[in-house]
Amino acid sequence: MSASRKRPAPVALFVAYLLLILWLPLPFGSNRPVAWGVMELWVFALGIIWLARVARGRAEPSAVLREARPVLLCLALWLAYVWMQMLPLPMVWLSAISPESAHAYAAAAYPDVPAYAPLTLDRHGGLHGALKSTAYVMFFVLTLALLDSRRRIEIAAYTLIVSGLFQALYGGINALDVVGGEWAHGTYVNRNHFAGYLEMCLAVGLGMLIAQLTGRRANGFRQFMRNAVELILSPRMRLRLALVCMVIGLVLSRSRMGNTAFFSSLLVAGVIGLVFSRRATRSMVILIASLIVIDVVIIGSYFGASQVVDRIEKTTMATEDRPDIAGHTLEMWRAFPVFGSGLGSYHTVFPRFTGPEVPITPTHAHNDYVQFLAETGAVGIVLLGLVVGLSLFAALRAQYQRGDPLARGLAFGAAMGITAILIHSTTDFNLQIPANAMTFMFILALCWVALNFERRQHRVGRDGRADDDEPD
Fold first, then answer.
1. Range 120-158 burial, b when 16+ CB lie within 10 A, else e
2. Mean pLDDT for the chain?
């Protein structure tokens, strides 16, 4: 066999990758030291095996991986940055770039001022944060490298859907008092993080459902009945039922922002999909409309959407402590505006900026934006914004340029998943939960997979944009 011939990643490596996807949410969302340690070792082992194969010439970076260079550069800069936060710097340098950090170290060590100190004010938390970030980036790279065929892309997407279906069924049983409980939370401790996970699983599931739309019209009653029977017997119906179960699980979570983020992202992604897709079909319009009407009105009403609405209506600034936490977190950021207090340092540093209106010390800010801003400063938030922005732009390009139904479906699902988490992150900390953060990286990677897998450009249209050599 020629050394230059492309070889797919070994099946065993791909199976281990799929098992990781299934494992991530099971041990409390991997939000325990042992659980995220297992996650990191698992990802690093897969990454080392793949890199060893590349070094030995038994594998090569996929076209998708090569085309994702802009986002990979941003991720590499992010990793360099969070590891650099733990690098001991001369106190003179630290005083110049982060006076508040230098003052904190000097006050803690008074009267003996240290000669060297890092940017982070929590080295233990910083190490955990850097290791998690490295695992997330490695998982992103593995997703681009291992999803090297249409079949593997579909298997990976359905693996996430199966995981979401299990969480919905398990959480639903709990919420309906078969096991006992007031609301669904699956294997998570916090129902909001359970809802965040289902948002992403639902988004990918909807994308795969859109990928299967045929756009065929019924010419007469006989053809209509034939199409209906084919739909009932097709895998599409099983996927639709799985999505219904996940919507029920989401509603039963009683998560206000979880439900708001899901249905808002569905509307936003639906509008974007219809505007950006040159090949938007009547079937796609009907599907999106049916999802909103059937899921919200019928399923939601029966399984308690009114309770969610009631919780939202009763929510006021007086009954919520999250705005106060976010406000104090912004004060924390103002003390470390450029480089932050160090990734993973929130729990250690925040008490210095809290007030009596926050009776307990929160572990997180209940707002991913302000927490990342406080911990990593303006530099970190810009790098993260570039990663998400570039990926979302890739998904929009895929919806506009690609003719492949799977590519369009993946792009729709990825755009919806990103939108849902961006909305949910305004009042919660899904991206601080390892299972949800890793799944979000999977969603970001799907943007680039949708744009570049099996892509063949053979001509340039009158508008100057290349068309895909793909069937409609």
1. bbbbebbebbbbbbbbbbbbbbbbbbbbbeeebbeebbb
2. 84
Give the SS3 label for residue 203.
helix
Whole-number pLDDT of residue 218: 44
Look up residue 311 and give its amino acid: R
Alpha helix ranges (H) inside 212-314: 221-233, 235-252, 256-276, 282-290, 300-303, 305-314
Segment 396-432, tens digit of pLDDT: 999 999 989 999 999 999 999 999 999 999 999 999 9
Instruction: Specify the amino acid at residue 187.
Output: T
pLDDT of residue 306: 54
d(CA 429, CA 267): 23
Half-sphere exposure of 359 (CA within 13 A, CB side): 1
Task: Calculate the alpha carbon distances from 20 to 27, 64, 136, 188, 212 in Å.
Answer: 12, 21, 12, 17, 26
Indicate the burial class of 327 (C-beta count within 10 angstroms; 0-12, 13-18, 19 or more).
Answer: middle
The one-character DSSP state at 457 is E
- Would you state the structure tokens that stand for residue 15, as one six-digit string? 């199976």
Please give the radius of gyration of the chain, using alpha carbons only, rounded to the nearest integer: 24
Contact between 427 and 452 under an 8 Å Cβ cutoff? The reply is no
User: Model pTM?
Assistant: 0.88
